[in-house]
Specification:
elongated, 58% helix
């Protein structure tokens, strides 16, 4: 019974889809978010891959614009 209630609640109020929300984000804004993430979580694998995808070297101390 609890699983059914949980399923109904999940279907009624799904979570936000981050990739779709950021789909039309401008490149400069995206790069700034990646730079902030690199500063906050420099050892995060996801952040490093995002930086590489955006042509940002995650090993640089002061990345260029």
């Amino acid at each position: 019974m609890l699983a059914v209630v949980g399923g109904v609640l999940a279907a009624a109020k799904p979570g936000a889809d981050a990739p779709k929300l950021n789909k039309y984000e401008k490149e400069t804004v995206r790069r700034e978010h990646i730079r902030e993430d690199l500063h906050a979580q420099p050892d995060s694998g996801r952040v490093m891959w995002d930086a590489l995808d955006a042509d940002i070297d995650p090993t640089e101390e002061h990345p260029r614009a």
